[in-house]
Structures are given as C-alpha cells and as structure tokens.
Prior knowledge:
Blueprint: E1 4-9, E2 13-18, H1 33-41, E3 47-48, E4 57-63, H2 66-78, E5 82-89, E6 98-102, E7 104-106, E8 112-114, E9 122-132, E10 135-142, H3 149-156, E11 180-189, E12 192-197, H4 209-217
Parallel strand pairs: 4-11
Antiparallel strand pairs: 1-2, 2-4, 3-4, 5-10, 5-11, 6-9, 7-8, 9-10, 11-12
Amino acid sequence: MSAYSVIVQTPDYLIINKAPGVSVHRDQEDTGLLQQISADLNCGPLYLVHRLDKMTSGLLILARHAEAASILSRQFQARTVEKYYIALSDQKPRKKQGLIKGDMERSRRGSWKLTSGQKNPAITRFFSCSLQPGLRLFLLRPLTGKTHQLRVALKSIGSAIVGDQRYHSVSAATGDRGYLHAWSIAFDWQGQRCEYLCDPTIGELFLQPLVKQQLEHWKPPASLAWPGAS
C-alpha cells in the first residue's frame, strides 16, 4: 500500500490522498511523509499547513513555498477553509444529525473527552444515515480544528468510529482500519474558490456499494442544508 497518491499538483501547493496508518510527522520512521513526497516528486521542501491523525485517510494540503504556507495557514486560522469528513460507526447515535459542541479536556493516556463547557468549544456539524443494521455512515463538518475532535465528537454521542483503537471499546475486533476519511476540502486561492473531493480507496467497509451510493447523494457536501452553528 502506498503512503499517498497525488490528487492535484500546482506551483503553490499539492493535495494528496493520505493512506490510513501513515503519520504526517517523522514519528518512528526514518523518513517523514513530507520528505518522502518531496523526494518522490523532486519538488523541493514542502510545508504542512494542517494535519490528519495517523488513522485518518484523505485530503491533505501541502504548501510548496513559504508564502503559500503563510496564506493557507491564515485561512485555517480564520476558519474559512471548509472541511468535510466521512466516518463509519457500528453503534447507534443518541441523535442522527445536528451539532456537537463542547470544550475538550485531556483524559487518560493521551485521549481527550468532550465536556459541557463552552469556553473554547470544539464545534462539529453532522448528518448520518443507517446503511444496514449495525452500520451507520456519518458526514462531518468540523467548524474548529481540535486534536481528535471528530473521533471524540462521535464517541460523545455514542457512536465511536469503527477501528478507532483509542476511542472504540472493541476496536481490535472491528475493522481493518480506522474508518475516518477527509473527504472534501475547499479554500480560496488567487481569487477563486478551489474545491476538491476524494472518495476513500482503502477499507473493506468504505468500499461497500451502500457507502458509495450514499456518498453520491451527499455530493457536493457544501450544498447540503447543514444544521446551524449555534
């Protein structure tokens, strides 16, 4: 399995489809992902402007020079970048769509938990649909960018992500990967709104026809009537 595939390559940025199980940092490997891509494409140094968890696959923007990195980083900080994720759970949620909002606090062993506090809340809009008994597909739009935000948000409504070894109580027996995928991203570049979308390509459950059919109904995700932000 390749660590990534290139979705688009411009003079200012790359967008890749990161494989699950691949760290965006050097981690324990001899060569980090950015260094590997730079060497593969012979494109010079690359700049990380946002992150995906190791278990999460999907769209990742890499700036090709410092100015592009600064412009993109400011957009992420201003929350003008739209991000859409999909996830699978084998647990029924306490609500099928709406808003998940609350402060996040550190828990044990590197985990996080969602609280009822609203000082600096993590905010996530979501839809979901039942694909079959014991399997539900979620479409998630994070309005903030907290560590483990989506994984903790779904756990907080009773629907931990299949294969999430940190937040799913029986993850070892469920799933050949963590079933969270960065599906679509949109941002402004040189006066234009750039939108990219990439269906998951890895994971037995993601490749089921029922998942593919539902994703077609949700395209493009920005056009859906999303639950309010308050």
